[in-house]
Amino acid sequence: MPAFEHHVFVCHNTRPEGAPRRSCGSQGTTDLHAQLQKLAKDAGLGETVRINKAGCLNQCEHGPMVVVYPEAVWYGNVQPADAVAIVQEHLVGGRPVERLRVADECLNTKTCPHRS
Amino acid sequence: MPAFEHHVFVCHNTRPEGAPRRSCGSQGTTDLHAQLQKLAKDAGLGETVRINKAGCLNQCEHGPMVVVYPEAVWYGNVQPADAVAIVQEHLVGGRPVERLRVADECLNTKTCPHRS
């Protein structure tokens, strides 16, 4: 058995001002992280889920980024208001939030049409 | 397809001196992280593997901690010298390094015999 049924990694990476790639950490991820923690606790998920800080997940153009393991579901442009859907639909209900998912062809590639 | 065949999270959490729980980040994880990155690159793993910084993984008594997803393999007391085994045996060879694994019954529990 893995330690967590869902292990949620929230990118908090912050680059210096003027850096060529975006920073998830300057786009509200502190609030997002706190919301995920509060809502997971309120939902009674206790020790089965961990909301974890992460460094750069290397999908910066789609940030703020969140990845949920072991299912390897990647969410992009995640705002604090999206925390309720991630907790209720995915972590409680077991159904990933499709509207927030980054398409497979946009992950881990330098040729994604969303990258400038 | 997930973004990475193996996504390796290395805890870098550092607590204030005198804190009751241990800090992975004060036990050589910067060197460990650098070794994992270098050896993964040298092994030609390229974009298929990411060595990622993580905040506290909440298994502090077994640290320095590393977790590899999507397979959810947890390694404890990981030293910089262990990087070669993790890269060669696990990331290249596909076989987790058994001598470094934290036992399932020691994960995510307050009653583990290793916790004081």
Structure write-up:
The structure is a homodimer of 116-residue chains. Chain A is an alpha+beta fold and 116 residues long. The first copy, chain A, is 21% helix and 16% strand. Chain A is built from 2 helices and 4 strands, in the order βαβββα. A 4-stranded mixed sheet of chain A has the order 2-1-3-4, covered by helices on one side. Chain A binds chain B through residues 1-4, 7, 9, 12, 47, 50, 52-59, 67, 69-72, 74, 104, 107-108, and chain B through 1-4, 7, 9, 12, 47, 50, 52-59, 67, 69-72, 74, 104, 107-108.
Strand order of the largest sheet of chain A: 2-1-3-4
Low-confidence stretches of chain A: none
Structural shape of chain A: globular
Oligomer description? homodimer
Q: What would you call the structural class of chain A?
A: alpha+beta
The sequence of SSEs of chain A as H and E is EHEEEH
What do the pLDDT scores of chain A average to?
93
User: What level of helicity do the residues of chain A show?
Assistant: 10-25%
User: How many H/I helical runs of chain A?
Assistant: 2
User: Termini distance of chain A?
Assistant: 41 Å
Rg calculated over all Cα atoms of chain A: 14 Å
Quick one: biggest sheet of chain A?
4 strands, mixed
Q: Largest chain interface and its two residue counts?
A: A-B, 26 and 26 residues
Number of strands of chain A: 4
The proportion of residues in beta strands of chain A is 15-25%
